[in-house]
Design goal:
Elements lengths: L1 H61 L8 H44 L6 H16 L15 E2 L2 E2 L7
Antiparallel strand pairs: 1-2
Helix pairs in contact: 1-2, 1-3
Length: about 160
């Protein structure tokens, strides 16, 4: 049972590592796509604002209104400020979505690091520990309790606090 448990733990660990890596890469690609889409939306909003301001300016000039000060300048400034706020909102939403994907990737990596061999990580760790303990001692049985998350185990302690 010992060698099979080790092989099973290694295979499960490699499968989980590949799955975690793929998930993180997928999140990176999604974040890039979100940034690209946000840039397209922001550029489009800027074009719309520029067109609206040109149209307003033309309308004022056709009506004989000059741009020294007063209402025409305020209207153009308001159009410009509204467009800037819209563009900032697009960028803020993009950053939030990208950060959410980054957090999901970090969570997946953290989960993998603290439980590298899936839900049965504690049992596999116990099997591996027992195999090597029995191989190096004359004792035929050993009892291991605890989990792989760094708790004390009879016969030793696994420290995962420094894993980053």
């Amino acid at each position: 049972m010992g060698f099979f448990a080790i092989f099973q733990a290694i295979a499960q660990g490699l499968t989980n590592a590949f799955s975690t890596y793929s998930y993180i890469q997928e999140n990176k690609e999604q974040a890039k796509e979100i940034a690209r889409q946000a840039q397209i939306e922001a550029d489009e909003r800027a074009k719309q604002a520029k067109y609206a301001m040109q149209k307003q300016k033309t309308s004022f000039l056709k009506g004989g209104v000059y741009f020294d000060s007063g209402t025409p300048v305020e209207v153009l400034n308001e159009t410009y400020e509204t467009a800037q706020q819209d563009i900032q909102a697009i960028n803020d939403d993009s950053v939030k979505a990208q950060k959410k994907l980054q957090r999901a990737g970090r969570t997946a990596l953290f989960t993998f690091l603290i439980n590298p061999v899936g839900n049965n990580g504690g049992q596999y760790a116990n099997d591996i520990y027992s195999y090597f303990k029995n191989k190096n001692t004359s004792s035929s049985t050993s009892t291991v309790t605890g989990s792989i998350a760094g708790t004390k185990m009879s016969g030793g302690q696994i420290n995962t606090k420094n894993i980053v």
